[in-house]
From TrEMBL:
Annotated CDD domains: HTH_XRE
Keywords for the protein's UniProt record, in alphabetical order: DNA-binding
Protein name (database record): HTH cro/C1-type domain-containing protein
The keyword Protein biosynthesis belongs to this UniProt entry's keyword annotation: no
Domain HTH cro/C1-type, residue spans: 16-70
Residue stretches in coiled coil: none
InterPro entries: Cro/C1-type_HTH, Lambda_DNA-bd_dom_sf, TransReg_Diox_bact_type
Superkingdom per UniProt: Bacteria
PROSITE patterns assigned: HTH_CROC1 (PS50943)
UniProt-listed PANTHER family: HTH-TYPE TRANSCRIPTIONAL REGULATOR, METHYLPHOSPHONATE SYNTHASE
């Protein structure tokens, strides 16, 4: 039975927390430097909610890490509920206008 991928938001939060701790920052310190509310940062680090791209970019800038370090290997198919992606290949032919579909 294939293993269900972990929600990528949880892994992203874990990575942010690890980097923050490695740099000897508290949640309050990183929140202040990033102009975020500490409770918002806690939510992100726990993998809850859906942080805006601008927030992730700001955190990466403050922590001086490349976005690749934050996002490498995250599996979009770990998202659940309304965020779960449906690959284009799963849509029926009737979804496409005739001239849109090349293959």
């Amino acid at each position: 039975m294939p293993e269900t991928p972990e929600d990528p938001r949880v892994e992203l939060g874990r990575r942010l927390a690890e980097i923050r701790i490695r740099q000897s920052l508290t949640i309050q310190g990183l929140a202040a430097a990033s102009e975020l509310d500490p409770s918002n940062l806690r939510t992100i680090e726990k993998g809850q909610g859906n942080p805006r791209l601008a927030t992730i970019l700001k955190l990466a800038g403050v922590l001086e890490v490349d976005l690749v370090e934050l996002f490498r290997g995250l599996d979009p198919y770990g998202l659940t509920g309304k965020d779960e992606p449906h690959p284009l290949s799963s849509f029926e032919a009737s979804f496409w206008r005739p001239k849109d579909r090349i293959a």
